[in-house]
# Entry
Amino acid sequence: MTTTPDFIADPAGRVPVACVADLVVVGGGPAGIAAAVAGARNGLSVALIERYPYLGGLASGGMVLVLDDMCNGAEISVRGICAELIDRLERLGLAVTPPAPDRRADWAMWRKWSRWGVFDFTSHSKPQPINYSTAFDPDGFKRVSNEIIADAKVTLRLHSWFSRAIVEGGRIRGVICESKEGRHAVLGSVVVDATGDLDVAASAGAPFVVGSYMVTTVFRLGGVDTAEAERFEYEEGDAFKALDREAKRILGGSWEKWWLKTPLPGVVWCNCPHMSDYDGLKVADLTRADFEGRKRIVALLEFVRARMPGFRDCFIVDVAPQLGIRQTRLLDGVYVMTKEDVVQRRYFSDAVARGRDYYYPYRAMLPRDVGQLLVAGRHYSATSAAQRISREIPPCMAMGEAAGVAAALALESGAALGEVDVRTLQRRLRAQGADPGDQPAANASLVEAAA
Ligand SMILES: Cc1cc2nc3c(=O)[nH]c(=O)nc-3n(C[C@H](O)[C@H](O)[C@H](O)COP(=O)(O)OP(=O)(O)OC[C@H]3O[C@@H](n4cnc5c(N)ncnc54)[C@H](O)[C@@H]3O)c2cc1C
# Structure
């Protein structure tokens, strides 16, 4: 039985303890939701801390509206809590996934599905294969996240901004948050950092590197006649290409398809513009990026209204409340994933999660130097180049799920997180519907023995 202190001592004065739990998860994005739910389902009391007034992180507040990187062509490689979330969204009519017979590479399927963004973005063949990916609605993501967290009986604390890790004797004991009520502490036996920017681990003194990647003010347009826009694209190819090129020039950088359909009729999401030279940790840069992004969006709006078939009556529905920061701090953990590990699909005997066809070793979630702390999500231990190609929402959820189960195993056995029996962790993940993957026969030569 844990005795709850009323206050903890802090250099800035006494801080009231708001909550004590077995597991404290900081960050209510995809990785944090999965970590909290997995921990609670494995018998832990769990507190989940989120700075914003909703769950979902970049998936909802960043309006990143396709769940991809969860299928390797032959099989679905991310299941578990991510699959449950998709089921719930589909039941609400707020998610669209191509049915199995449509998941193939041919021009008819490309025309039917590519504007949903549900294709294999890593493939160099034309047309790229339509695959198992899900386009979803951001508010739906918030709603089903609330449901899944409430069903698991997680203590959710929104509007709470993590500010400092409490570390004693080389291990983390909890965190301090800022809120409208002032500062408060949340104490736990294990802490999972799921902030995406490594706020907790960095504050706790874990080694990290600072990476960067392009930044995006994602936005949605409404009032789009998508049927007319697609007719123009496929039936007046040359005219379409010229206008599309101009739209991309105005945006100053985007993926090949700068607009994609959503489950809401006439509403498209725009995963653009691509903007570089912004530091996702600096207030001045974050502010500047908002101004620059909105300027480009308005310029694009004027152009497509005037010139692009299907867009004559369109309007801005919203610009994502969260700026699209893809990469900042990255853990320099017990193992650091490299681009080669990802591209060559290196299998690790301590693999606990995977993306489309690559594996995350448990050691890439373990910080050096700080006990009782795990890291899950886009700031996991990887080089900048590796993270760029292994940071999508479903694999971040798979990492989170593994972190929640690992925390439970550690507390059940009294082992330190670094001593958790990985075979038991893999078995339990499988038994609960997740799929950390098996050693593939084809690349047995790339197997790396766990330390
Ligand atoms: C523009 C853009 C487009 C993308 N496109 C796709 C795509 O099409 N498909 C795809 O699958 N992935 C895509 N991604 C990648 C994906 O969105 C992220 O990598 C993924 O959301 C990471 O999940 P996470 O839980 O690790 O982090 P995040 O989603 O960043 O969640 C972190 C959470 O922690 C909270 N938090 C942070 N700091 C604190 C703090 N100090 N105190 C309290 N709470 C805190 C945040 O508010 C947030 O809720 C895209 C990313 C961007 C930016």
Remarks:
- The pocket of flavin-adenine dinucleotide is lined by residues 26-32, 49-52, 57-59, 62, 64, 66-69, 161-162, 194-197, 199, 216, 218, 271, 324-326, 377-378, 391-393, 396 (CB under 6 Å).
- The mean pLDDT is 95.
- The first strand starts at residue 7 and ends at 10.
- Residues 283-307 form the longest helix (25 residues).
